[in-house]
Design a protein that fits this description.
There is one protein chain. The protein has 304 residues and is mostly helical. It folds into 3 domains: 20-105, Tetratricopeptide repeat domain (Serine Threonine Protein Phosphatase 5, Tetratricopeptide repeat, Alpha Horseshoe), CATH 1.25.40; 107-191, Tetratricopeptide repeat domain (Serine Threonine Protein Phosphatase 5, Tetratricopeptide repeat); 209-304, Alpha Horseshoe (Serine Threonine Protein Phosphatase 5, Tetratricopeptide repeat). The chain is 84% helix and 0% strand. It contains 15 helices and no strands. It is rod-shaped and about 130 Å long. It comes from Tenuifilum thalassicum. This is Tetratricopeptide repeat protein.
Length: 304
């Protein structure tokens, strides 16, 4: 009798536990469904706000989804990051956009935004990485801006060959801008493409007569050209002091003087704009070549 009674008690307890479990599971299911339904509504509202450039409302809704931990797909992190950037939350934008990348939910605008955010925090390497990803993924609408920014990043990072290879892909709109022309001049100077650099520098001065980058290149270009020819012809004449060699030296010195005068003009302009000691030293050297000791002394004093 006791045995059957005990068994009956155990069965009742098991049935109660099963009913409790079923109720609990049902409750969890309903809660989960409720969260999923709410998140679906939040996503609709967030995407609508995002489309309307209402980034404050969009971010608030996206963050509710993120905080719930349910249904947080990569595109939600992507748009949350873009919204955060538009609102000036740089660190938050980086965090969300990096999460989007982990889930492979980043689009071209997301990469572009992340690159801008890294530029703001002065992380050049990550800026370049995300601009490269943006160019790979970009639509026509965003492509030219991304390429222009990538060219600028290559110049700032002194990746001269990469910048040079990208230049021809830039639209004429960007190539005409002074800042990009200056960048291209730096590229050509560092790749020792002197003829192209001279051409670019001359074009820059037509737009901006006080452009330091172009003035400095042309000043050094004509100085080096004159100095190299002067040394070459003087050595040749000292080795072979014939009338023929003297005539050749005389002809060369005329060109030397023309180029030194050009260099002098550029260096004097540079010194007025920016009284740098190195410009003064060049001028001292030029007046030494002109055998003008007084002016050479004047400039050498300013170079110390």
């Amino acid at each position: 009798m006791n045995y059957y009674f005990c068994m009956s008690q155990k069965i009742n307890k098991m049935n109660k536990f099963r009913r409790f479990t079923l109720v609990f599971v049902g409750f969890i299911f309903l809660v989960s469904c409720g969260v999923a339904l709410k998140n679906k509504q939040l996503k609709t509202e967030a995407n609508q706000a995002f489309t309307n450039n209402d980034y404050k409302a969009a971010l608030a809704s996206y963050e509710q989804i993120i905080e719930s931990g349910k249904g947080v797909a990569g595109d939600i992190y992507n748009k949350a990051g873009i919204s955060a950037w538009e609102l000036g939350y740089t660190d938050k934008a980086i965090n969300y956009l990096e999460n989007a990348k982990k889930q492979k939910g980043t689009d071209a605008l997301g990469y572009y935004t992340l690159a801008k955010a890294y530029k703001k925090v002065d992380n050049l390497s990550r800026e370049i990485i995300n601009l490269q990803l943006c160019v790979e993924a970009a639509s026509t609408e965003l492509m030219q801006d991304a390429k222009a920014d990538l060219f600028d990043a290559y110049v700032r990072s002194e990746n001269w060959n990469l910048a040079d290879s990208l230049w021809n892909d830039l639209s004429p709109e960007f190539k005409k801008q002074l800042s990009f022309s200056e960048g291209y001049l730096k590229v050509k100077r560092n790749l020792n493409d002197i003829d192209e650099a001279q051409k670019v520098a001359s074009e820059i001065l037509q737009k901006d007569k006080k452009n330091i980058e172009a003035l400095e290149f042309l000043a050094q270009y004509y100085y080096n050209k004159a100095d190299k020819l002067y040394i070459k012809e003087m050595k040749a004449y000292r080795r072979n002091k014939t009338m023929k060699q003297y005539k050749r030296l005389t002809k060369a010195l005329k060109q030397v003087n023309v180029d030194f005068k050009r260099a002098r003009g550029y260096f004097e302009t540079l010194y007025k704009l920016k009284p740098d000691k190195k410009y003064a030293k060049y001028l001292g050297n030029i007046y030494t070549r002109f055998e003008n000791k007084q002016k050479a002394s004047y400039w050498y004093k300013r170079s110390k």
